[in-house]
Amino acid sequence: VQLVESGGGLAQPGGSLRLSCAASGFTFSNYLMNWYRQTPGKARERVAGISKGGGIINYAGSVKGRFTISRDDAKNTVYLQMNSLKPEDTAVYYCNTYLNWNDYWGQGTQVTVSS
Question: Which stretches in the chain have pLDDT values below 50?
Fold first, then answer.
């Protein structure tokens, strides 16, 4: 199982970024996919999740209405569109899935929101 995030960077408050997570090594379309984020000294926070098939989506309250998770099973990729970014969105963002009784994580991508 391999998860590779990309798309992080520096954005201004109110700006947008789109994160991507390319998955391999498992049947991507069969699994729930999540985005988490973490800041130093804090626990990792689940930001959004999308079910197999994309029919069930949920968000943390702090990002609802601003972030959109989606998946493209043909490309084995999950996305996180982040709009109206705030400084408190600054974190390392991780892609995650759970299969065969194990959590799998990507290496993370840094998102910094600052003027």
Answer: none
